[in-house]
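If it is no trouble, can you show me the amino acids of a protein and the C-alpha cells describing how it folds?
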Amino acid sequence: MSAGLGIGLAAVGRPAYINSGRAADLGDRRDAADLRARTATVLDAAYAAGIRYLDAARSYGRAEEFLAAWLAAHPEIDDVEIGSKWGYRYVGDWRLDAEVHEIKDHSLAAFTEQYAQTRALLGDRLDVYHVHSATPQTGVLDDAPLHRALARLRDAGVRIGVSTSGPTQADTVRRAVEIEVDGAPLFTSIQSTWNVLETSAAPALAEAAAAGARVIVKEAVANGRLAPGGQDGSPGATRAAELATELGVPVDQLALAAALAQPWAGIVLSGAVDPAQLASNAAARALDVPPAVRDELAALAEPPADYWRARSARAWA
C-alpha cells in the first residue's frame, strides 16, 4: 500500500518558524486573525485534495485552536483523522524576535496539563497524541508513571505515539516500539524526520512498520531546503533541485515523491502554507520517479550530525 499525504500546521499556527521563505510566503500578514484565515484556507485545499490526516501540536502557537475552529465550521466533515503532540510549550508571545519560541517538558505534569488543553480545544476529535520530539535524554522513554497515564489514554481509544528529531532518531524509534504497558504496545504511531538529505532513521522506521506501528514522515522538504527557492547552496539540495528541473517538476514534488515511495511510510506530511503550495505538494502522489533518479537521490544524504547541526542553526523568521 502506498503512503498517503497529510497536512501539518507547524508553519501556519504561529508567526515565526525555521522554514525557508517565510517572508515571501507570509509577508507581514502574521497576526492571529490572518493566520487563522490562512489555516482555514490551507485546510480547505487539503480536504479538497483528498488529504485526511491533519497534524498539530501544543507548541505550534494557536494551531490547535485554528484547527478546532475549522472543524466547528465544517460539522459535515467526519472523515478526517486528527493528530496532535504534547511536550513543548509555545512561549514566543507571537513575536518574530523572541529569544525562545518553545520549551520542552516531557514530565507527567506537562502531559497532564497539555492534554487537558488539547482536549478542551479538540474534544473527542483527537485521534492520535504524540510525545513531541522524544529523546532518551529527557527520560520520557523510561517514565513508568507517565507510561501508565498514556496507556489510560490509549485504552480510551486514542492512538499514542512519539515524534523524533536529531541524529539519534533511530535509537528513539527502536526504544519506543519496545515499550509495552499491560502487555500491549504503548507507542504505535511514529512521526520522524526523513528526507533525501537525512535518511538515517529509515532502517528503524522500517522495523517499526514491520512491528505494526504507523510511520508518519515529517520535514520531507527539509524545512524548505527542498522547496522552490529554498536551496542553501549545499551539494545535496542543489543536486535535488537540478534533478527536479531535469524531470520538469518543482523540487518539492520530487522530495515528497521520494518520501511517499518509502515502503515503510504510512503518511507523509505536507507543510504547505497556501493552496498553491498544497497543490504542488499533492501532485507528488502522481509522480513516478525513474529508477536512475531514485539512485541519485539515495546518494544525497548528509551525515546526520551535519544535517541536524545545520537545522539547529536555522533562524526563526
